[in-house]
Amino acid sequence: MSAMALFGQLLLGLINGSFYAMLSLGLAIVFGLLGIVNAAQGAFYMLGAFFAWMLGQYLGIGYWPSLALAPIGVALFGMLLERTIIRRVYNLDHLYGLLLTLGLFQIIQGLFVYWYGTSGQPYDYPDALAGGHNLGFMFMPNYRAWVVVASLILCFGTWYAIERTRLGSYLRAATENPTLVRAFGINVPLLVTLAFGGGVALAGIAGVLAAPIYQVNPLMGGNILITVFAVVVIGGFGSILGSIVTGLVLGVLEGFSKVFYPEASNMVIFAIMIVVLMLKPQGLFGRER
Amino acid sequence: MPDTVLEIAGLNGWYGESHVLHGVDLTVGQGEVVTLIGRNGVGKTTTLRAVMGILSKRSGTVKVMGAETIRLPPERVARLGVGYVPEERGIFASLTVTENLMLPPTLAPGGMSVDEIYRLFPNLKDRARSQGSKLSGGEQQMLAIARILRTGARFLLLDEPTEGLAPVIVEQIGQVLDTIKGKSLTVLLVEQNFRFAAKVADRHYVMESGKIVDMIGKAEIAGKMERLEEYLGV
Asked: Where do the H-state alpha helices sit in A117-239?
């Protein structure tokens, strides 16, 4: 096999891994603070892509403004859902949150299938990132390099904000004991809404980044979500660093398996999930609860 | 600043369906250290939680610095300048000692500086980078008090600060309370250790079955010792 093919698949794996990392990071934040297994995360990813496409289609707004506007729209929509619907199941078993968000996911996806069909809408690369560079051992399309760099910056920026800043210490403390954090004078319900908005905005950004690569399709969220859940289980539910590292590594592993044993590429992540669940049920980076 | 920092009248409180507070009445004046004493399960901790707004199912009147708080959420009560040290101390395991110390936002000017706090609690300075989960019980208690002294809170609710601690640590906490009094902060203290309470407090409210049944001033303690022992069941 050629080195070109190997590195090509490696890059594809890294890009998929970037999307896994962003989506599972959003899940980790939301699960940590709200105790909600957000099955609608895939819908927010799809919405990010669709909002960007709609901004371009109906308002003529280009890629770069959409990269900020679409995730903000996703976050606002997410916060509206959190305040009006999701908030009601916080005190119930995790299963209710999962079922509720799964239902929301089906409704949102169903509406977009109804409106736009399942054939997908093309979304163009920004001109500034057209073309690519020949690195000698492989051809590197500029847009794909940008996706990897942007998602790495976002993921580690989010990690830094949570683990090293004052606002992050509020989040971590509220994850442990929200009542006491309120008794110190911090508006935890507002913090929860903002964290939910931040978590789904990550999915929204991932959606915009993905739009030029995969097209804009109502089913794109459902396709990626199953894999993302496997990533989250392997990394350890609620672990911030775990979801980033696991997402990237598993994307790359999936890419490699496409080169060496393509038949297994669709199931390699799930095979790893089974092994991890048998050996370390709390996940590689998870704490026992 | 009003003379009365806390005024509770006819306070009722519930945990779900169970009625725990049955009309609590008490007042705490500016600069006073007042204790709530009584046997286990009479509603002392619940009274503090009701004042803080953590116990949300409550009725009656709770005025903090003159403001009615019966309908306020905990974060609004805290913003009036109230610092709360819960019975379980509430040190965050995933935060370092420094992060725990810096967590509560400043509520008013005039709080202690970090340097002052480290002078008062030298052990905490040595443990600054440790995780909250690595502290001993005494260090946790010190940190729980230290972090609210930083905020500038003028009214402190302390829930059994000496519980389960070695005598030498209890003595240290007594000195901390003296420092707090020296700054003319107001304290409502829940305490089972009556010998400790008698040393630091100006007045004692005795609770039984969710009500205040007696109030004993510092000067009357000697004469009322027998009655007190009956209340506390010692």
From this structure: 142-164, 166-176, 178-183, 188-214, 220-235
State the Cα–Cα distance between residues A226 and A223, nearest whole angstrom. 7
In a domain, A209, yes or no: yes
Assign A140 a pLDDT band (cuts: 50, 70, 90): confident
Report the predicted TM-score, pTM, of the whole model to 2 decimal places.
Answer: 0.89
B75 vs A169, A177, A182: nearest CB:
A182
Q: What are phi and psi of B108, to 5 degrees?
A: -160, 155
Range of the domain at A61: 9-122+138-220
The predicted-structure confidence for A58-106, as pLDDT tens digits, reads as follows 999 999 999 999 999 999 999 999 999 999 999 899 899 999 999 999 9
Q: What is the pLDDT of residues A246-265, one digit of tens each?
A: 999 999 999 989 888 888 88
Rounded-to-5 percentages of helix, strand, coil across chain B:
35, 30, 35
Question: Cβ B103–A173 below 8 Å, yes or no?
Answer: yes
Which CATH code of 3.50.50.60, 3.30.559.30, 3.40.50.300, 1.20.1300.10 fits the domain covering B4-232? Answer: 3.40.50.300
The reply to whether residue A182 touches residue B73, judged by beta carbons under 8 angstroms, is yes
Question: How big, in percent rounded to 5, are the helix, strand and coil portions of chain A?
Answer: 75, 5, 20
The amino acid sitting at B176 is: V
Those of residues 17-46 in B touching chain A at CB distance below 8 A are none
CB atoms within 10 A of CB A247: 28
Give me the total of CB pairs closer than 8 Å, taking one residue from chain A and one from chain B: 59
In this complex, do A185 and B75 lie within 8 Å of one another by their Cβ atoms? yes
Residue A185 sits at the chain B interface (C-beta within 8 Å): yes
Residues in contact with A106: Cβ distance below 8 Å, sequence separation at least 6, in sequence order: none
ipTM value, please give it: 0.92
Q: Is A241 on the interface with B (CB under 8 A)?
A: no
Question: Is A51 among the domain residues?
Answer: yes
